[in-house]
């Protein structure tokens, strides 16, 4: 597909079929994504591809830990506050997700079940974990990770695959390190769930929203 169709057509997927993604397809995606730009061509990223039995074990443990309300300890702290415009968009996104499934505001049980599905990666058959070395300056390395992760997701979309960029996949980094044998000198940044999307599912086809260009562009000259 052309680049504009890829950018505007890609969306976050929240239900996957169990069908395994061929290893050669994942390899091709990552092989192409490595041409993403990075600061000074440092290419600070590493990726750990988890599938099969190790992924099944991770999903179950990740879900159990969330269900037991074990505090998360991500290597990259989640923001605790947002500027008003960002906070409003975040809250609107949450309402859209729940409304798409017909979940009422006060239905805490249904909301918790959705969170548990998220912890189980919405049944994705592949999890790609992005890491950086602990000696890397986080600010620029995170920019590099963002660039290559976006490229990876666009390439996956072009192949008919779906992705979901997930902080919820890396909230218990010690669990990932143990299952994926990730060295202790790596900082776990984010997880990308990948698989074949169930496009009939409500959370995979609701109307998406974006701010207008007038909200974020300032012309000078």
Q: How does this structure look, described?
A:
- This protein is an alpha+beta fold and 221 residues long.
- It has a domain at 12-77 and 119-204: NADH Oxidase, CATH 3.40.109.10.
- Helices cover 42% and strands 14% of the residues.
- It has a four-stranded antiparallel beta sheet.
- The relative contact order is 0.24.
CATH architecture identity of the domain at 12-77 and 119-204:
3-Layer(aba) Sandwich
Helix content, binned percent: 40-55%
* Large-scale geometry: globular
Distance between the termini: 35 Å
**Spatial strand arrangement across the major sheet:** 1-2-4-3
CATH topology of the domain at 12-77 and 119-204: NADH Oxidase
Which structural class matches the secondary elements? alpha+beta
The biggest beta sheet reads:
4 strands, antiparallel
> How many strands?
4
Q: What would you report as the Rg, rounded to the nearest angstrom?
A: 18 Å
Order of helices and strands: HHEHHHEHEHE
User: Which CATH C-level class of the domain at 12-77 and 119-204 is it?
Assistant: Alpha Beta
Number of helices: 7
Mean pLDDT: 96
CATH superfamily of the domain at 12-77 and 119-204: NADH Oxidase
Strand content: 5-15%
Low-confidence stretches: none
Descriptors:
NADH Oxidase; 42% helix; single chain; 7 helices; alpha+beta
Please describe the topology of this protein.
Elements lengths: L2 H7 L13 H11 L11 E7 H16 L16 H17 L7 H12 L6 E8 L4 H21 L3 E5 L6 H8 L5 E10 L26
Helix pairs in contact: 2-6, 3-5, 3-7
């Amino acid at each position: 597909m052309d680049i504009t169709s890829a950018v505007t057509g890609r969306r976050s997927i929240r239900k996957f079929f169990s069908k395994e993604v061929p290893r050669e397809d994942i390899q091709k995606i990552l092989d192409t994504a490595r041409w993403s730009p990075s600061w000074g061509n440092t290419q600070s990223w590493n990726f750990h591809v988890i599938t099969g039995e190790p992924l099944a074990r991770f999903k179950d443990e990740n879900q159990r830990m969330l269900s037991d309300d074990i505090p998360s300890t991500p290597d990259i702290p989640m923001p605790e506050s947002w500027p008003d415009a960002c906070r409003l968009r975040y809250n609107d996104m949450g309402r859209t997700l729940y409304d798409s499934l017909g979940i009422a505001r006060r239905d805490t049980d249904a909301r918790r079940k959705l969170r548990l599905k998220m912890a189980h990666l919405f049944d994705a058959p592949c999890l790609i974990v992005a890491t950086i070395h602990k000696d890397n300056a986080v600010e620029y390395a995170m920019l590099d990770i963002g660039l290559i992760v976006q490229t990876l997701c666009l390439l996956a979309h072009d192949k008919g695959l779906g992705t979901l960029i997930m902080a919820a996949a890396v909230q218990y980094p010690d669990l990932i390190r143990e299952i994926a044998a990730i060295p202790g000198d790596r900082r776990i940044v984010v997880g990308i769930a990948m698989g074949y999307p169930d496009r009939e599912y409500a959370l995979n086809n609701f109307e998406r929203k974006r701010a207008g260009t007038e909200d974020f562009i300032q012309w000078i000259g």
